[in-house]
Amino acid sequence: MNSSFLIVSAFLCCTFFSVRAQDVKPPQPSGESIQAQKLSFIIERMELSPEELKAFLPIYKQQQDKLRTTRRSVPINRKLEELSDDETEAGITATFAREEKLLEVRKDYFIIFKSILPIKKVAKLYLAEKEFNGDLLTKLQNKSAQR
């Protein structure tokens, strides 16, 4: 009787852990992983020569850092109902200011990019960024719909 109790207990434990293992979700890609994928995608689409890549990479990374810092400079409060009208207006105004700053950064780096790359490759940069972001959004929407 004692040995059959142990066998049944072992069987139940194994069954429990195998069921739990099936519930484990795959890890979500980190922000760094997505940025690395984005950079790889853009470089492939731009068809840069080794010399162009050497000039482009540090400047592009610098631009991305400035854009990221600017985006984070104005926190977005999604709890609209908790804000007064004045706070809501201030938040909207701050968002407009942030968007203007982002546009300034993009314009500044456009001038730099076109000084080191042919204009067609600069255009490919912007097209590749848009394509990557669209693809990423589609993947996120598909994942959300599957839940």
Describe what you observe in this structure.
- The protein has helices spanning 2-23, 31-46, 50-72, 85-116, 119-146.
- The mean pLDDT is 83.
- Helix 3 packs antiparallel against helix 4 (85-116).
- With 147 residues, the chain is mainly alpha-helical.
- It is built from five helices and no strands.
Shape annotation: globular
Distance between the termini: 45 Å
Number of helices, where a helix is a run of at least 4 consecutive DSSP H or I residues: 5
Largest sheet: none
Radius of gyration: 25 Å
Order of helices and strands: HHHHH
What is this structure, in a nutshell?
The chain has helices at 2-23, 31-46, 50-72, 85-116, 119-146. By secondary structure, the chain is mainly alpha-helical.
Summary keywords:
single chain; mainly alpha; 5 helices; globular
Topology:
Layout: H1 2-23, H2 31-46, H3 50-72, H4 85-116, H5 119-146
